[in-house]
């Protein structure tokens, strides 16, 4: 364990989150960004609690799909991967996603970890040689049985599969049925949401087939340590990235600190790999399964999954140009529930931006700061009404925390925005401008005091989702430190804004969008 101490002398809780590693045949679109953003928001939330966080993302660079994409461009697979991996890194930095590591499966550290992992599984007797004859979907990089096809096509991509006959090594997945069922019975929280757990259990109960974990027909992959004529099946290689990144095989202390992972965030399309194959592979290597695999739905565009061939992909950069970074982040966290499928619509994004960010959040901040500058000499008053807003502000943290515990980002946003709306309503009700006009400076100051205290709580609780606006609001409230350096839950307590803090009006935090064209 780490010896670094938290703010109150305790050893910080360690918290680790991963995204899938993305195939480099494609550049990042809003679907990839969705998972990666959610992980960032979750990690920011935990960092606000003083946790020692490890957030991992990266790229999946081997396999037939990448080999073919590179061939189509007339370049070597590694060169193709180099070009595309950087696009992912740039996109995450443009969205202000903070990662602790970016792993690429072509790195030497990953080759070393995969070899070690494979050897452990082989030595433990879970790999044998056989002949594979079957059907393969290249876009999925997955094998299918006849009865899994829909109209002879891959059930995910709706495209023909290829028939393959090869001498391969097989992984004895069939030996793990009971152990996986026992594991999920003892840890019902290990697959979420509930519907996804049922799906996984149903799949295991149908009976598990051994799967082919090596190929000889391609060379673009990690060679098997005991038989280098074979390269590792791309999924077997890819899943091990989660271990590579935290020191598997090279730094036991580091690995023991970070393993098992707290959350593997994945799309529903790759749930089976993460909740069936991966835990079995880990058990076979003598390692613990992940604590939770959380599968979210797809972001659809016009009711369809995005794909290059349908020409319906949307790229983060284009939306950031219109909505800003915080506008982008807010939309995908507040308006696209993390779990079910959701349809992306530009119009809905504009409407919600104007309603929640420009009107509710932005107007509230301007109104309150303006009044404080005009009626209270641009200082935080030393009085408060301590009325209804106080109790609402005090309960908001609990609601937001409960939502984050369920990875329900939309509800976390709703709770914060309920507080914002309640503050706007409170201002209407108490009409501080009338109190001021009537010369009641004590009552005016008390109402504004309540609003300012609430704004402080809003800034801290909204910071994981809209870090820039929250940081700017925090500064305008007279703080010289950073909002993301605060410590929850203390930072959400009522009355934390110091009387006398200098206040600043500033420009609108979220200018209204006009999309009349
Ligand atoms: N390389 C594998 C994952 C290996 S993890 C050890 C892979 N890559 S992928 O690039 O095809 O997709 C990865 C993930 O991107 C999906 O599971 C999902 O998390 C995300 N999404 C891709 N398209 C998406 C949508 N349209 N909507 C939401 N998420 C989507 O599979």
Comma- or semicolon-separated keywords:
seven-stranded parallel β-sheet; four-stranded antiparallel β-sheet; Rossmann fold; binds 5'-O-[(L-methionyl)-sulphamoyl]adenosine; 17 helices; 517 residues
> Which molecules are bound in this entry?
5'-O-[(L-methionyl)-sulphamoyl]adenosine
The total of helices stands at: 17
CATH topology of the largest domain: Rossmann fold
Strand content: 5-15%
User: How many independent structural domains?
Assistant: 2
What percent of residues adopt helix (DSSP H or I)? 40-55%
The quaternary structure here is: single chain
Strand count, sense and barrel status of the largest sheet are: 7 strands, parallel
Calculate the terminal CA-CA distance, rounded to whole Å.
57 Å
Low-confidence stretches: 1-7
CATH architecture assignment name of the largest domain: 3-Layer(aba) Sandwich
Walk me through this protein's architecture.
The protein is built from 17 helices and 17 strands. It is an alpha/beta fold. It has two domains: 14-296, HUPs (Rossmann fold); 347-492, Isoleucyl-tRNA Synthetase, Domain 1 (Orthogonal Bundle), CATH 1.10.730.10. The strands form four sheets. Strands 1, 2, 3, 4, 8, 13 and 14 form a seven-stranded parallel beta sheet that branches. A hairpin with a 2-residue loop joins strand 15 and strand 16. Bound molecules: 5'-O-[(L-methionyl)-sulphamoyl]adenosine. 5'-O-[(L-methionyl)-sulphamoyl]adenosine binds at residues 20-23, 31-32, 34-35, 60, 238-239, 241, 266-267, 269-270, 298-299, 305-306.
Task: Give a brief description.
The protein has 517 residues and is of the alpha/beta class.
